Each structure stands twice: as C-alpha cells, then as structure tokens.
Amino acid sequence: MQANKRRLLAAAAALVAGTWVGTGHAQGSYPDKPVKLVVGYAPGTAPDVLARLVSDRLGQALKQQVVVDNRAGAGGQIAAQTVAKSPADGYTLLLGEAGSISIAPAAFSKLPYDPTKELVGVGELCKVDFVMVVPANSPHKTVADFVKAAKAQADKTNIATFGAGTPGHFGAELLAEAGGFKVEPVHYRATGDAVTAIVSGDVAGSFVSTALGAAQIKGGKMRALATTAPQRSPLLPDVPTFAESGLPKVDVSTWFAVLAPAGTPAPVLDLLNKQLQATLRLPDVQAKMVEAGFSVSASSRADTDKLIKSEGQRWAGLVKATGFKGD
User: Fold this and answer.
1) Between 117 and 162, where is the model more confident?
2) pLDDT at residue 318 in the model
3) Keyword Signal on this protein (predicted)?
4) How distant is the alpha carbon of residue 313 from its chain centre?
5) Domain 31-127+254-322 belongs to what topology?
6) Which of 189, 192, 197 is nearest to 166 (CA)?
7) Which end of the chain is more exposed for a tag (fewer CB within 10 A), N or C?
8) Above 90 in pLDDT, residue 45?
9) Are 254 and 97 in contact (CB under 8 A)?
C-alpha cells in the first residue's frame, strides 16, 4: 500500500513538473493572461520609451499582451517596491535601472525593498549614457566654461536631477568634485518638471539620458556640453565625451534590465529570457533602440544577475565617496 502511494505521488509530481517544461509550459500554463511591465518613470521618458519599444514585440513572442504600467516617483523606487512585493508568478515584471536597484540600497537606510533578496534578473536590455545639458541661452559652450563659472561664484551651482540618488544626481556630484566647485542638486519628482526647469533656465544644467536629451538638443531647447559615454554618441556626434573634456571620472553610464520577483519559477524566467533575447535581436527593434539612444544588450539570466551584483558594488563605492545619504 505504501509503495502504491509513493508511485501515485511520484506520478503526480511528474505531471505537475511536465506542465512547467519547454513549449508545453508556454502553451498550456504561462502566460495565460497579460503580463505587466512596471516602469518607474512617466510616459515619454527614456525608460518608458524603451519599455514600449520592447513590450509590443515581446508580447507577440509570448502570445500575450505585455502592458506597460508607469509607477513614477522616488527615482524608480515606487516601481521597484511594487514588483518586489508582487506575486512571484511571472505576470508582474520590472524595468529595472541603476537608480532603484544599484544606487538606492547604498544611499537609503530605510529602503522598503531589498533588490538582492526580493528581485531576480530576467535579462539585460541595454546600456544607457548621459549627456550634460545647459539651457539653450546659457553662456557656457563647453564643460570648461561651466566649471570656470561655477568655481567663480560664491553660491552653489544649481543642477537639476530626476530624483535624489539617481544617476543624474551622482553626475552632478561627480562633476562638482572633479571641477572643484560647490553644487546644489535640485531634485524634481517629475521628469517633465526637471526638463521645464532646464529649458527655462531655472537651473544651470543637468545630466539627462542621451535618449531623452537628443531631441531637446536638436530642437534647440537645450545645449549639450559633454556625454558620459566612452565614445561619442551616434545621436550627438559633435558633442565631446567627458574624457575628451578632461574629466574622465565623470561617468554615470548605466543600464536597463527586466527583473522579476524572487521565487518566480525558473522555467518562467527561462522562457522570458529566451523570448526577450529573441526580441532584442530583431533588426527593427535594434534599429529603433539605437535611434532612441540605447546600446542594445541581450544577456543570459546569469549574466544579468552578475551585472546587477557588480553594479551594486560600483555604485556603493560612488555613494560612499560622495557621502550622500537619502534619509
């Protein structure tokens, strides 16, 4: 009787496992409803543009709609917390970025989520560079001009950021340290408010993603001084890098990756990674991402987790060096 019971249990376990394998799992179990991709920034921002570039074709591959859910605020932390506390079933994913995943744990002592314990990598999407911009009517044409003026004034120089503890915030801190002047980061909750402040001249400058800044710069609403990329951006070929401008330590280049709640079944993560990599290799997707200012990546789950770990260590060092504390 015990032997029969063991055989029945083994057969049941095998049946359950079979529903989570390969195409059988994909067709019969996951996904059987829309998948939500949570983004920590407002519509029209670089993260949102990226999410919408990828979500449509990923949804086609999964044969289910991938819905972009904007949860803007707190430098991406609201979105990260939302996903970290969601069911680990593969239906709620995060468009993760350095601010909320790599910087926040070192900068905020009371972070309401733990990226290393509550989130797991699905796949890296791309690398992202930043460009330092000033208002179009600014007298500064180069980084050297900006630094010279900032050092000469008695007050601190106002530089807009898209939130405390974001890459742009640390760009401001690193520039001030490298240039030898005092900075006053002005943190805006909404990206649109920060852009308005830059365009109207309410602040001296800002670090914005190349994807966001390119259109504003080409439209004559902002002026670019330098990019954080190792080479000049194809979107802004006339703009020098910070290394060319004599300040190579001003490096806040970052990344975007899809993450899921820890505990999400491995077959679900494997399926998502497979379809995500296939999506990123599509020529039209790659062309649109490059056009928008992203350097495409298509990494394995393991490599994504390694990236998140190494970036956490890198940014922790930068946070410590600047002495920044978010709370």
Assistant:
1) 117
2) 84
3) yes
4) 16
5) D-Maltodextrin-Binding Protein; domain 2 (3.40.190)
6) 189
7) N
8) no
9) yes
What is the rounded distance in angstroms from the CA atom of residue 210 to the CA atom of residue 162? 14
Least confident of 45-49, 176-180, 260-264: 45-49
Q: What's the mean pLDDT in 24-39?
A: 80
> What are the two backbone dihedrals, phi and then psi, of residue 31, each rounded to the nearest 5 degrees?
-90, 135
Q: Where are the domains of the chain?
A: 31-127+254-322, 130-227
Single-letter residue type at 211: A
**CATH code, 130-227:** 3.40.190.10
Given a cut of 50, whether residue 250 has pLDDT beyond it is yes
What pLDDT score was predicted for residue 113?
97
Name 235's Cβ contacts closer than 8 Å, sequence gap at least 6. 210, 214, 291, 293
Which is nearest to 235 in space by CA: 259, 248, 219, 255? 219
Q: In this structure, which amino acid lies at residue 114?
A: D
Confidence tier at 321 by pLDDT (50, 70, 90): confident
Model confidence pTM above 0.90: no
Say which amino acid occupies 32: D
183-187: strand order across its sheet: 183-187, 157-161, 205-209, 130-135, 222-227
Fold match flag (31-127+254-322 vs 130-227): yes
Alpha-carbon separation of residue 71 from 77, 79, 190 (angstroms): 9, 5, 11
Identity (one letter) of the amino acid at 282?
L
The dihedral over CA atoms of 303, 276, 295, 172, expressed in degrees to the nearest 10, equals: -70
User: What distances in angstroms separate CA 292 from CA 61, 128, 280, one per listed residue?
Assistant: 22, 10, 14
